[in-house]
Amino acid sequence: xxxxxxxxxxxxxxxxxxxxxxxxxxxxxxxxxxxxxxxxxxxxxxxxxxxxxxxxxxxxxxxxxxxxxxxxxxxxxxxxxxxxxxxxxxxxxxxxxxxxxxxxxxxxxxxxxxxxxxxxxxxxxxxxxxxxxxxxxxxxxxxxxxxxxxxxxxxxxxxxxxxxxxxxxxxxxxxxxxxxxxxxxxxxxxxxxxxxxxxxxxxxxxxxxxxxxxxxxxxxxxxxxxxxxxxxxxxxxxxxxxxxxxxxxxxxxxxxxxxxxxxxxxxxxxxxxxxxxxxxxxxxxxxxxxxxxxxxxxxxxxxxxxxxxxxxxxxxxxxxxxxxxxxxxxxxxxxxxxxxxxxxxxxxxxxxxxxxxxxxxxxxxxxxxxxxxxxxxxxxxxxxxxx
Length: 387
Ligand SMILES: Cc1ncc(COP(=O)(O)O)c(C=O)c1O
Known about the structure:
Blueprint: H1 11-14, H2 20-28, E1 35-36, H3 48-59, H4 72-83, E2 94-97, H5 99-111, E3 117-122, H6 127-134, E4 138-143, H7 152-162, E5 166-170, H8 182-192, E6 198-202, E7 227-232, E8 245-248, H9 251-265, H10 270-282, H11 284-307, E9 320-321, H12 332-343, E10 345-346, E11 348-349, E12 361-364, H13 369-386
Parallel strand pairs: 1-10, 3-4, 3-5, 5-6, 6-7
Antiparallel strand pairs: 2-8, 7-8, 9-12, 11-12
Helix pairs in contact: 3-10, 4-10, 5-6, 5-9
The structure holds pyridoxal-5'-phosphate.
């Protein structure tokens, strides 16, 4: 017994902590009367047609393993769906995964050798950094400007001097709500076409883009052979618990990603795959509805926070807003803890998303308008007590 201690545990695994979002969520549980705006779980029900398709799949006994890559019907629909964004991957270049999370881990596992440098934006979705560390990779960060767009001077320098193996792009962004503008996508392509870096583009919020046109680096066929796309349905169909995502890559990478996927999970859950298939075939109107609701909420939150004096960028996608709290003279975790204790509103400290997230907070507006209105009133009242 005495010989069992932390030396028995992988040092890479010990080097990461549980996500700051979850950590804070666990604190919120201690305040049952608090309003929580912490999670990335839309408040909409799964569209009825998806539910019915899943029930039917069970009744039809579609409950066995699927092929490792997932059912052909769903992969074909994903291929068509991506085409509508100007992104071209055939069904054989698509693997269905257990959420975007498995897709990310599979890709990083397939790519990373010990010490490989992986370039990640700061702030960013925390899983990127943790996956890389667990796999023994080295995390490098690139800077974002005040409006959360890419700081190209910084990116160019890092690409030239550090020569990272891969870089992560994450648009629309969790936590900032930023998207890639047309100009920046062109600039990015011009920079990346002359570089050898592999590109991992996490576009899990692609369906929640509030601008008319969608721009992404995965639209450029010239660099498709080294661009790996991550997508999924958790946010798109409000089906986070049904766990369906996907990864798209050229054959060279897909063959290796598939090995990791196969030995990890064999395949994604069959029933949920049929649900996602129904979603893509027949639920695009539900997406339009959800998107329009998120836009209403985004406008409300932005205007309300601005009128309270927060410095904040207008989010253009996903369902998060990331205001600065620097003027309140508190660290972001201190701000959030006080807000939770004193005003009973839970939001996530920006520090959970990286060093550059310090001085910001992430508010999820994937909640009902009533909840958002009440929480904004409480925040306003609390802020006035600080003056
Ligand atoms: C940017 C980003 N990528 C990937 C994921 C993982 O999604 P999933 O729930 O499909 O595993 C999330 C979930 O919040 C996310 O915000």
